[in-house]
Amino acid sequence: MSHTGTVSTPGSVSTTGTVSTTGKVSDTLPVDKAAVRARRRRTLGKVWPNAVALLLVPVFLFPVYWMFSTSFKPSSEILTKTPTFLFTPTFEHYGTATGVDMFWTYVQNSLTVTIGAVLLALVVALAASFAIVRMRFRGRKGLVLAVMMAQMAPWEVMVIVMYLIARDAEMLNSIGFLTLIYFVMVLPFTIWTLRGFIAAVPKELEEAALIDGCSRTQAFFRVIFPLLAPGLMSTSLFGFITAWNEFAMVLVLNKESEAYTLPLWLTQFQSAFGNDWGATMAASSLFAVPVLLLFLFLQRRAVGGLSAGAVKG
Amino acid sequence: MTVHTQGATPVAEEPPPGEPEPTDGVSPSGPKDRGRRPENAAWLPYALIAPAVVSLLAFLGYPLIRNVVLSAQQLGRTEMISRTTVWTGLSNYTDLLKNDTFWTVTLRTFVFMAVNVVLIMVLGTLIGLLLNTLGSKMRLVLSLSLVMAWAMPIVASATVFRWLFDTQFGVMNWVMRGLGFAGYEQHNWFETGLSTLTIVTVMIVWASIPFVALNMYAGLTTISSELYEAARMDGASSVRLFRSVVFPMMKPFFLITTFLEIIWVFKAFAQIVALNGGGPDRASETLPVFAYVEGMAQMNFGTAAAASVLTILILLIAMSFYFRLILKQEEEQ
After folding, report:
1. What is the reported pTM?
2. Backbone conformation region of residue B16, classed left if phi is above 0, alpha if psi is from -120 to 50, else beta
C-alpha cells in the first residue's frame, strides 16, 4: 500500500479516537432492497461485536482489577475458597507493604536508577540526534543503523556476561552501574525518537535565528529546544517505564538487599511473606500504579509508534 | 500504516535514514555553508555523537564481544575463585550440542515461541478488527481495558498471575469448579513444566494482544471507508473483505509485528523467571532462562555464555528479517 498518504497522522490515531465513518454511508443511500438488506445485516452485526467486546473487557481487566481488589480486602476475606467481591476496603496491607524493612530504600533505588538513566539518556541522545539530523559527517548512516539495531539488543540474554563484567569491575550491588546499564538500554530508543522530533522542527526556524545573530548553540537552546519539549516529555516517560520495569539485570547484578530495586523486591516479597497475598498485591499495586497512569497518559503515542519495543520486554 | 520505529508523532516528516538528508541548506558541506557558520567545525558532529557512541560501545559492544570470548573459556567455581583463565576452544559449544537437555530446551523454546506468536497474532488481529466495528463508546471501554493489560509491568503481572492461579485460594480454581470441572479443589497449576509454560503463555498472550490489536485498529482507520463500501457493494463477505482488502493493505504491519513478537517472545525472561523460576525442576526453562540458570545457579559460566551466544545468533536471524522489513518500509515512505 502507499504509506505516504496515510502516515501523516500516526500519532493522532488514538485508541479512543474519532468515530470511523465506516458503516454510516449506507444510511444516506437511496432506500432500495440492497440497502435495506445491508442495513439489516449491519444492525445484526452491531449486536455481535458488542456482545464479544463485553466478554473481552473483563478478560483483559480482571487481573488488574483483582490485584487492586485483593490489596484492599481484609485478610479474612482473601484466604477463602470462594472469593468475595463485596467487602469493606482496608488500607492495612499497604501499611504492611510499605512498613517492610528498607522499603523506602527500594523506592529510592528505583527512582535513582530510572531518573538517572532517563536524564543521562536525554542529554546524550539530544546531542547525538541533533548531529544525526542536522549535520553531515562520515559514518552517519552507519550510526543510524547501529542505533536501530541497538534498540533490539537482547539484554535478557546478556545477563551472564554483564554479571562477570560487573564482578571484575567490582560493580556488583552498585546502583551507579545499574543506572549506566539502564541508560544504555533506553539510549537507542531515545536517540531514535528524538531524531524524529528534531527533524520535525523546521530548519527555517533555526536559520532565521542564525541570521538574527544567534550562535548555533543559542539557536539550539532558544529555538529548537523549547519546541522539543513535548517530544522530550513523552520520550523520557517511555524510558522511565522501561527502566522502572527492568528485572533481568537487577536480578543478576544486585544480590544484596540494599541494592534492590522495586521489581526485584516484588519478586522476593512473596517468598518473604508467604501467603500474605493482601500485602503482596498491595506491593504490586504500589509498583504498577505509576506505570498504569503514565501509560494512560501516553497511550496515544504508544499506538502507532512503539514497534521498536521500548516499552514491551 | 501504523508500524514505525521512529516512535511518536513527527514520524512522517522524518526523512528515511537510507537517503542523504539535506542538512544545512542546499550544499551541506559546501564552502559557502562553512563560511556562514564558522563555529560549525568539522569535529562538532563527532563531538556530539561521541558520548552516545562511547556508551553504546562500552555497555553493549564490549559485553557482546566479551560474551563470545567467554564462551571459549572454562569458567566454573574453581576458576572464579582462583581467578584463572582456562581456554577451551569450542568445547563449550560441542558439549552443549551433544547435551540432550540443551536440545530439549531449544525445542521447547521454539514450540513455546510459535504457540505464543500464533495466539498473539490471531487473537490480536481479531480484536483489532472487532475494535473497528464497535461503536465509539464500546470501543473506548475495550481500548481502555486493553491499555491496562498492556501497561501492567511484567513483574506485577507475574505476581498477580501467581495469585490468580494459587493452589489453595486462587480464583482460577474457583472458576474451574464453578464451570463444573472436577479436580480443582487444590489444583496446582505449576505442577509440571508444561502447565507452568501454559500459564506463562496465558500471561504473555494477555499482555501482548493489546499491542497488536490497538495497532491493527489504528492501521484499519487509515483504510478508506469507500474501499469497504465498494467491496461490500460487490457482495464481498467479511472473510473475503479481510483477505482481499484488509490483509493486502496491512501486510507490512502483519510481517513487522509478527517478527517483533517472535523476537520478544523468544527472549522472554522476566515472565518465566518471576512466575516460577524456570521450574519445577528446570522444566519450564527456555533458552534465555537456561543460560541464566546454567550461569548463576550451576556456576558454568562458559557453558552459559555459549548458550547465550547461540541464542543471540538465533535472535539475529529473526532480527535481520525485521530490520529488512523496517528499512524497506522506510524507503517506501
Report:
1. 0.84
2. beta
